[in-house]
Every structure is written in structure tokens, then in C-alpha cells.
Known about the structure:
Elements: E1 3-9, H1 16-26, E2 31-37, H2 43-50, E3 56-61, H3 67-77, E4 82-85, H4 97-105, E5 110-114, H5 126-143, E6 155-158, H6 173-183, E7 188-192, H7 206-222
Parallel strand pairs: 1-2, 1-4, 2-3, 5-7
Antiparallel strand pairs: 4-6, 5-6
Helix pairs in contact: 5-7, 6-7
Amino acid sequence: MEYSIIIPAYNEEEGLEKTFKRVFGANPGAEIILVDDGSKDKTWSIMQRLAKNKKTIALRHENNKGKANALKTGYDKAKNEILATIDSDCTYPPEEIPKLVKKIEEGYDMAVGSRFTKGFPKGYSWKRAIANILGAFFTSIILMHKVTDVTTGLRAFNKKVTKLPSKAKNLDYEAELTARVIRDKLKYVEVAIKTEQRFGMSKLHFFKSCWTFFIAVLRGRFA
């Protein structure tokens, strides 16, 4: 079955091209949609060059609107019923996308690539480890469903998932979307993946991000 892969980016000139080449190589039949969310570096010029491939589309926000809006721009343009998303900083292995898509073909509504089903990856900082332990613990309690990775950026889902309401604007989008999928009793599954060293600076701010993700889960569960 054909599927579309959406790659949002904001100031990701260091990792974007490498991510794209791996996505393209591991998913040769997929439509690839690149979305520049108002970058100030060379991200957009790189996207324009990559989009010369006939299976690739490059879209741009003139101003930064947040990751959630970048993904939604990609959703609107995608021509296939199965969608996948991956971050542009080389953190996630694109070679895992077909595994997630297969789960959607089997009848799941959302399949996420979990970094933590088998513990924590090597090289993970203690701050991020603690944040993810606590985040997964409280998310599982709130949703009454075991969740090991609420914020992963590697996902596959069908188009009806994109219609779920969301007030998230940025990196909290995945957390809220997970909560809404589980709350609405859609079929959700986690698939173990490996992670890699990211390119460029992380956009997460430890304490602020933890609070934002927690609120997103509550909003997704009860709003």
C-alpha cells in the first residue's frame, strides 16, 4: 500500500539532507513531503533542491508556526490514506517506517516507534531519562493504557487520526495526539526502535517541556 511521509523542519540544515536520503532509500515508493516551518538558516534552500525529485514536495511557512502546524500542512497535501511522520534531525531511523506502516495495514489506527520499550538508549542524559520515566508513568495512569514513549516523532497512522481535534501548537502535539487516540479507543500500538545521535541543537527545554507535555496529555484525555 502506498503512503506519504511528512518531514517537518525548523532550522535543521545540519541533519535534513541526511534524513531525507535515508527516508528516500528505505521507502522508495513513498511520497515525501518536506515542510519548512519558517527556518532562518539554509533549511528551505536544501528542501527546494531535494524537491527536484518527482516523489518529493517542499512546502514552506513564511513564519514559524510550530511543529503541529507544520505537520498539519503536510497532512493537507498528502495524497495517500496512510501517513508517517519523522523528525529531520536524524534522531529516528527511517528504516523503521515500513514496520509502522505494516501495522496500519494490519488494522491499527496509529503505530508509534518507541525508544523505551527495552530500556533507555545508550548516551541518553539522566535528565531526559528521568523525564521520560516520569512522563510515561503518569501518562499511562492518566490514559489507563500502557505508554512507554508519549513524545516520539516517528509515527504512522491513517488519515482519520489527523482529524482529531488538537490545541497543541508545537512539540506537545505528539503527546496530545497519543492521548486522543487512546481516549477515543482507536487501535494503538508501539513498536520498539533504536535512536541515534541528533544533528543540531535540541529545541527541548527540560522543565518547561515536561510541564507542557503533561498538560497536553491531560488536554487530550479530558478536553
